[in-house]
Amino acid sequence: MTRTRLNCIIPPHLLEELLRSEDSEVQQAALDTLVTTARLRGERAVRASFTGAAAPGDGRRTIFDCQHGRLLASAVMTRSEDGPASADDSVNRAFDGLGSTRDFYREVFNRNSIDDRGMRLDGYAHFGVNFNNAFWDGREMVFGDGDGKMFTDLTGSLTVVAHELAHGVTEHTAGLAYHNQPGALNESISDVFGSLVKQWSLKQSADEADWLIGAEIFTPGIEADALRSMKAPGHAYDNPQFGKDPQPDHMSKFVNLPDTDRGDYGGVHINSGIPNKAFYLTAVGIGGFAWEAPGQIWYESLKASSAETQFQDFADTTYRKAEELYGAGSNEQLAVLEAWQAVGIQISGVPAGVARARSHAGHRNGGVGRKDGLTALTQQIGALSAQVTGLAKDVTALRARK
């Protein structure tokens, strides 16, 4: 049985960079966050029963205020599904973020909350003092306020909320183990659906989206686009505070780290850049809204995966699901094929030469149709041959007239 881990949005390598800061307050906030995270990691927080809390079912939301404490059982309920808005902006942002994510899964994937059985959505704001993280612990969503120097209130980013809740979806579907490649896939799935929730909320196409995760959580003085960029892994930030974004965008750059807490369990927040880039390329290759065909392919592939699914396994599954959903040689399947090739993963059973032929044929056809790429290519060659034969006959006829 896979042990549930604490899934945090801020990767440990960023917090460890802050331990070297010359600002003692930044150092202390990073240290406190790491210590608290280490204490909580791998544990499920205990929820107390609250009088008047929203009843389970249909993803009903309840937000609690930790009042800067670290004991969830002592938190005070501040907003429920049927209650009025709070005077606390953090509470309202958490409430809205949970709602947007819940509605996305219901309307796009016909999924009833995180577990598909109406799991209630409980959020806890103002956790700890200067806590630089937000996490999903298997039962609820918890938000820190940030230290105010490096990070801001983490309720302010919809991609953070949706990313963390997606860990719950993964837990209730594939149950991807949180280490090495399955763990990196786990993180990537959360980035994918985190970005899709934001795109769906804004009604943005794949070309219009920024593909950034946590773009809102850095303070204005920090030069960084976001925690991660799905469009350009390795380029989300490059500054004195955090160094350079270490995410790879190709298997040739895969980062081998120890499967330990300090090693980020084999670099799950780092190597997730590879499948992230594959999804981005798939989405722009198909075009339109990324939560439609690309999202459906990834969601069905997640449900068809298991705890120890590797990158290769998942790539093969997305290719197969694209065929099941949209047809062999379809534009959707060709986009999946090209995307994984671009990050250094060849789909099993599809020779590289055949893949290129399919890809080129698909592009020449404008990505339209459901016929196999090789068939389309053969038809084009046949049409050219017919034209040449026709020209030859014309030349022969002209010569005969002379």
UniProtKB/TrEMBL annotation:
As recorded in UniProt, its EC number(s) are 3.4.24.-
- Which InterPro entries does this one have? Metalloprotease_M4, Peptidase_M4, Peptidase_M4/M1_CTD_sf, Peptidase_M4_C_domain, Peptidase_M4_domain
Classify the main location: secreted
Q: Any idea where this protein resides?
A: Secreted
Give all residue intervals belonging to the Peptidase M4 C-terminal domain.
Answer: 174-345
Tell me yes or no: is Hydrolase among this UniProt entry's keywords. Answer: yes
Q: Name one Pfam family in it.
A: Peptidase_M4_C
Q: What is the purpose of this protein?
A: Extracellular zinc metalloprotease.
Name of this chain's protein: Neutral metalloproteinase
Q: Which organism is it from?
A: Streptomyces incarnatus
